[in-house]
């Protein structure tokens, strides 16, 4: 059985036995919070449990590294939609220790792409078109700096409501311990 078949088979049972009823909620977050977090597998269940978050409590936006890379990219768009359309009154950026993005080397990732069939011509075309693939795939050296940069980009975005607190935290993916980097309630945050 393929992974897809396994998932679809389980889903059929999930629906027929009405297991979804435990998760029924509205589309607006009960705690009026949107969280930008990392897609790391260790955080799928740990992060909500460590924050006492249940289904329906928050909006989750996830990507590699909990990073806002571009002020008008899809991450920032999702955060703005959460604030203006889905009633989130606060934003929380949560990075984590031992993040894969802190060790990623763009040249190695590009080689893996070539090894899996992406053509050199495609990469040259993208680079010629102004997309610096080395920079685009670059990770970060410090999770703390990455969280601080993302918080700053969100807080200072021209379309973000200036009254919305933007917090920055780092979680330990082994224990769930949170370290507060930026308290968004403090007025002196930039």
UniProtKB/TrEMBL annotation:
Family to which this protein belongs: Belongs to the beta-class carbonic anhydrase family.
Nucleotide-binding keyword on record: no
Q: In its UniProt entry, what is this protein called?
A: carbonic anhydrase
User: What are the protein's UniProt keywords?
Assistant: Metal-binding, Zinc
Cofactor info, note text? Binds 1 zinc ion per subunit.
Source species = Falsibacillus pallidus
- InterPro entries tied to this protein: Carbonic_anhydrase (IPR001765), Carbonic_anhydrase_sf (IPR036874)
Q: What are the required cofactors?
A: Zn(2+)
**Matching CDD domains, A to Z?**
beta_CA_cladeD
Q: Which GO terms describe its molecular function?
A: carbonate dehydratase activity; zinc ion binding
């Amino acid at each position: 059985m393929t992974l897809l078949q396994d998932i679809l088979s389980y889903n059929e049972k999930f629906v027929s036995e009405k297991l979804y009823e435990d998760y029924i909620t509205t589309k607006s977050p009960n705690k009026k919070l949107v969280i930008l977090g990392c897609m790391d597998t260790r955080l799928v269940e740990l992060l909500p449990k460590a924050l006492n978050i249940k289904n329906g409590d928050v909006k989750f936006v996830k990507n590699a590294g909990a990073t806002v890379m571009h002020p008008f990219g899809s991450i920032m768009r999702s955060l703005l939609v959460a604030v203006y359309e889905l009633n989130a009154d606060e934003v929380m950026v949560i990075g984590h220790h031992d993040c894969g993005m802190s060790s990623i080397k763009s040249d190695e990732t590009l080689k893996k792409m070539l090894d899996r069939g992406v053509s050199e011509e495609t990469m040259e075309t993208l680079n010629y078109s102004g997309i610096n693939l080395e920079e685009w795939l670059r990770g970060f050296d410090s999770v703390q700096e990455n969280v601080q940069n993302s918080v700053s980009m969100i807080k200072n975005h021209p379309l973000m409501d200036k009254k919305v607190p933007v917090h920055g935290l780092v979680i330990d993916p082994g224990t769930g311990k949170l370290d507060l980097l930026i308290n968004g309630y403090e007025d002196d945050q930039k």
